[in-house]
Design goal:
mainly beta, Jelly Rolls, six-stranded antiparallel sheet, 48% strand
């Protein structure tokens, strides 16, 4: 049985956020990817367009998610379902860190505003 213990998770840092990867092709998953997202207090997000559906479930904090220009303040227990092709931005303007559990299908890419494409290792 494939098990990824907490000390085996891979940590990636980009755009002021931490992505702690548990399930991805690198750890044996063939279809799904899952990671814990940590955003420090006062951190602005970076808008990007996602190529796969992404589900973000808030564990703590009050992150602000903007989907295609529609802004929503989230609370612990809230879940956002972002369809493929959506412009997504996750900010944490609050005074405490925000944490979320995020899932998607393997192969996710992010098209950045400048036209560059990010292929995140936690989802590939």
């Amino acid at each position: 049985m494939p098990v990824v213990s907490a000390d085996q998770a891979t940590v990636h840092e980009i755009h002021g956020a931490r992505f702690i990867s548990y399930a991805a092709p690198a750890t044996g998953s063939t279809e799904l990817c899952a990671w814990r997202l940590e955003i420090a207090a006062g951190t602005p997000g970076v808008e990007h367009t996602i190529t796969r559906e992404e589900v973000l479930h808030v564990l703590s904090g009050a992150p602000v998610v903007t989907l295609d220009g529609e802004r929503t303040v989230l609370s612990p227990g809230d879940t956002v379902i972002a369809p493929a092709g959506t412009r997504l931005k996750v900010d944490n303007p609050g005074e405490q860190a925000a944490h979320a559990w995020v899932t998607t299908s393997a192969g996710l890419q992010a098209r950045m505003a400048d036209g560059s494409v990010l292929t995140p290792p936690w989802a590939n």
